[in-house]
Structure prediction request, 478 residues.
Amino acid sequence: MAKTKSNDKQLSVKKIDNGIVIDHIVTGGAFYVLQALNIDVHFPHSVFIAMNVPSKKLGRKDVLKIRNIGKEDLNLDLLGLLISGSNFICIENYHIVHKEKIQTPEKAYGVIKCPGISCITNLREDVETEFTVIGSNEVGNRENLSLRCVYCDKIFKILENISLIQ
Amino acid sequence: MNEDTEHQTSHIFGIRYMTENFIQGILDDASEIKQNPSKYAEALKGKILSLAFWEASTRTRLSFESAMLRLGGKTLGFSSQAGTSIEKGESLSDTITMLAGYSDCIVLRHPLRGSCKLAAKIADKYGVPVISGGSGSQEHPTQALLDIFTIQEYHHRLSGLNVGIVGDLRYSRTISSLLFALGKFGRNTIYYLSHPSLHLQDELVYDLESTDLEMHKATNLAEIISSLDVLYVTRLQKERFPDPMLYNKVKESYQLRPDLMKAAKEDLIIMHPLPRVDEIPYAIDRFPQAKYFEQAKNGVYTRMAVLNRLIH
Prediction:
């Protein structure tokens, strides 16, 4: 939904009245977020996606705007595993009411099922998955970010296991 | 004494979480108990140990039972899922909650990785310690304790050793724990020999990178045996091979033949977590270096030391 002005130097993406904006996403990250948040045609709110647009800071970037949801509707730890370094902004009545940089968490709880086939968390047990984060997914290193299951010690790359995100 | 600060109670689910001091303390206690067993005959009188074994076990279960009885305590439990509510679908969490109400400590063996950590999390609420008797292919910490107790008993040191490990290195939980243990005590050199499909787990290799262990891949026993202080052999598990023909073809490559012993040092010790099948022929039993039965016996003393430390 991105559109450029006629001079092709400035990006203009529709402002939203209420909702969240995630800016300065390393290119390709918006796609991971949509997958992780299970956003598809059945999603009840408007979603604006700008992918691979010019950025002074990153060269190219993605931008994501979602109407009528708030911080409480998202798991920032999960976003931190996918697009850390991005700016997370909450909008109310066209005004910025909250802004923070998305950070890679040290631990992640309940965000993804463990891909370890012999892990106890995949049995019928009342247990929340728990992972230690290995590495950082700062710009340029996202593909190397790995999680280690606290229970079974399985080490895996989150981007190769997006379908397991809960 | 807590091996993991996240828990209020002391649990034992992995050597990798233990400090060198904690391990050395257990070894010292085990040595003292071995020399003066009668002194500890009533140390745990009135206490009950649960033996919760989802998988078959001979040595681990019976040596824990023997250890508890020798400390004056009692045991209860099950040695398979048959005849328990687990057969009806009862979860690990519910079973542990129940056992925490019945006993003062739980020894758990379970086929899935992470099972002992989950059990410890649950039992922690009741102040009941959990000891891993093996959780999947992850770790078997008390086996490693008795292993290094045996090594220390014969070599009087736990560093500067040349250790050969042979057999199934991928699914053997005793190997994981032994390497973590040896990695706690300074520089040791490990020569590992296995079929390519049974090499060390990636996660284990990753963890061992932060230790002082020097790892060398060996191609056959003959090339390494003369330099070894310890030879630790594990059973090749036929069921791990996709093709039974392949198992029959490769098993002899990992067998300790008597003729290989000509090159062995006099003070080499041959160890095996048992049960053995073909990898150590009976003829090896006659060599003075064969220590696997002494090793198994030491399981009682080290487990007495562990129980005596954890149960209050």
Remarks:
- Residues 107-164 of chain A form a domain with the SH3 type barrels. fold (CATH 2.30.30.20).
- The longest strand of chain A covers residues 47-55.
